[in-house]
TrEMBL record:
GO molecular function: ATP binding; ATP hydrolysis activity
Location of this chain's protein in the cell: Cell membrane
Native source organism of the sequence: Ornithinibacillus caprae
Coiled coil location: none
Cross-referenced PROSITE patterns: ABC_TRANSPORTER_1, ABC_TRANSPORTER_2
Name of the protein: ATP-binding cassette domain-containing protein
Family in the record: Belongs to the ABC transporter superfamily.
Length: 345
């Protein structure tokens, strides 16, 4: 028996466009274990959402090209599934929560009815039973006076409460995998923390595996046990939370950490953004895509993609600095050093 529930291997996803092929995801490989939380982190445009939407097969059929890779869920490659087979999996065994709850809710329908519809879509039960289950789910996600609030419309809920409703809907079918794409980005900091706590508690209760997608390393600290760092469509470093925060090896990971607010930081200390901007993924060259922004760039980086180096059984990185011929580079002072260690253990 394997403890892996979802295994993405060597996934390439491109889009046809008037400007040529947009290579959004290139050779992405990761495993999601049963009951764990894995975070995919990276700047905007790095291919995080495209990876998630490939799993759910939510990308536009006409322009999307997936010409390499596999997405194996419980032993079966989802990429070989028909539309009908995929419909059975989507929203029932694998559910997704998006950033903006308003786009996932029907503004003209009462909350209770929407949650009930979600339940009835996946479970052969009576309306009465669906009502009871909807109320239970809304209670599970911390909606006060759940029965009463079922009669409200989405606009009568705050942003945080709407996101709770979305999570309740995603849980309606008892999914094995929950994919959360920037689930807290639209919310203020206090509500963000509440939603992350909620997801953690739900995971404890239900054993759901969570794939969380975020640009925010703060979310990673609160949620994930393992982290994959994505840049220009590739996973450039992957490791346990501890390895990424205390022993990261990729200058891009260092850049992300330096640009992250530190715990108890004096607000007058400026964050250091990563200089430059991500490359245009329709015009990639052969070398490391981070070369143009990397403070430690070497000649080789511009022309050749580095191989993946294994740092430990759980930690790997793709960077020429790992080559024995590379000069020794001291890791800079990083925000991660100020992260509460108790959160990573
Ligand atoms: N349907 C699409 N058609 C064409 N290009 C797309 C499509 N969806 C995404 N892309 C492109 O693919 C690349 C990766 O996008 P993706 O949305 O995965 O990034 P991301 O890391 O999730 O960032 P963000 O948080 O801003 O969504 C980007 O260059 C984006 O413009």
């Amino acid at each position: 028996m394997t403890d892996t529930i979802l295994s993405v291997e060597n996934l390439d996803v491109s889009f046809q466009s008037y400007n040529g092929l947009i290579k959004a995801v290139r050779g992405v490989t990761f495993d999601l274990k049963k009951g764990e939380t894995l975070a995919i982190v990276g700047e905007s445009g790095s291919g995080k959402s495209v990876t998630a939407k490939s799993i759910m097969q939510l990308l536009p059929k006409k322009t999307t090209v997936i010409n390499n890779g596999s997405i194996v869920y419980e032993g079966n490659d989802l990429l070989t599934y028909s539309k009908k087979e995929m419909e059975k999996i989507r929203g029932s065994e694998i559910s997704m929560v998006f950033q903006d709850p308003m786009t996932s809710l029907n503004p003209t329908m009462k909350i209770g009815k929407q949650v009930m519809e979600g339940i009835l879509k996946h479970k052969k039960i009576s309306k009465k039973e669906a009502f009871v289950r909807a109320k239970e789910l809304l209670e599970l996600v911390g909606i006060p006076n759940a029965e009463e609030r079922m009669k409200s419309y989405p606009h009568e809920f705050s942003g945080g409460m709407r996101q709770r409703v979305i999570i309740a809907m995603a849980l309606a079918s008892d999914p094995s995998v929950l994919i959360a794409d920037e689930p807290t980005t639209a919310l203020d900091v206090t509500i963000q923390a509440q939603i992350l706590d909620l997801m953690k508690n739900i995971q404890k209760k239900t054993g759901t595996s969570i794939l969380i997608i975020t640009h925010d390393l703060g979310v990673v600290v609160n949620m994930a046990k393992r982290v994959a760092v994505m840049y220009a469509g590739q996973i450039v470093e992957t490791g346990t939370l501890e390895e990424i925060f205390y022993d990261s090896k990729h200058p891009y990971t260092w850049g992300l950490m330096q640009s992250m607010p530190k715990l108890h930081q004096d607000r007058s200390v400026p964050l250091i953004p990563i200089a430059g901007s991500p490359p245009d993924v329709s015009k990639l060259h052969d070398g490391c895509p981070f070369a143009a922004r990397c403070p430690y760039v070497m000649k080789v980086c511009h022309n050749h993609m580095p191989d993946q180096s294994t740092i430990s059984g759980t930690h790997s990185v793709s960077c020429w600095l790992q080559d024995e011929r590379a000069p020794h580079v001291e890791k800079p002072e990083l925000g991660g050093n100020n992260v509460d260690k108790s959160k990573t253990s």
